[in-house]
Design brief:
The protein is an all-alpha fold. It contains six helices and no strands. Helix content is 62%, strand content 0%. It is elongated, with a radius of gyration of 19 Å.
Length: 145
């Protein structure tokens, strides 16, 4: 290695894709690359591969740490939740509250998502970490009729 030899070509490939992930994040503001995403040199497939290796316990700790530091989301269902939570933050910043009316034009499905969050909490199917994040944002679990 001291002479500049690269013993594992997959290290070069990983670094190249990681750099593309950072470019993606800089351009779009997040690391939630859809699996079908072909831009950025096929980044979607690489992201899927990282998640698969992580789930199987085959992703090196150093890579896990680097990806997490960049804001990488491991669980795909978390990815969708995070995107909608970001939309809720946008709504609150604009409107001053989290009570999304049905049919909000900038993100029409946000009201349905907030309804589902209330339902999940009521049914005991919402992780406490999500409950806390929503409450910290000012989300009300019951609406005035």
């Amino acid at each position: 290695r001291e002479l500049g030899f690269v013993f594992h070509m997959h290290n070069i490939s990983w670094e190249k894709h990681y750099k593309r992930l950072i470019e993606f994040k800089n351009d779009l503001g997040h690391c939630n690359v859809p699996e079908q995403w072909t831009n950025y040199g096929g980044l979607g497939g690489w992201v899927h591969s990282q998640r698969t290796r992580w789930k199987r316990g085959k992703l090196e700790t150093e890579r896990i740490e680097r990806l997490e530091k960049a804001g990488f989301v491991w669980e795909r269902h978390n990815e969708a939740w995070e995107q909608k939570f970001e939309k809720l933050i946008e709504f609150k910043n604009k409107e001053g509250h989290c009570d999304v009316p049905p049919g909000w034009t900038e993100f029409p499905k946000l009201a349905e998502w907030t309804y589902q969050q209330r339902k999940h909490k009521k049914n005991g199917k919402m992780p406490s970490e999500r409950i806390k994040r929503m409450e910290d944002l000012g989300f009300k679990w019951t609406l005035k009729k």
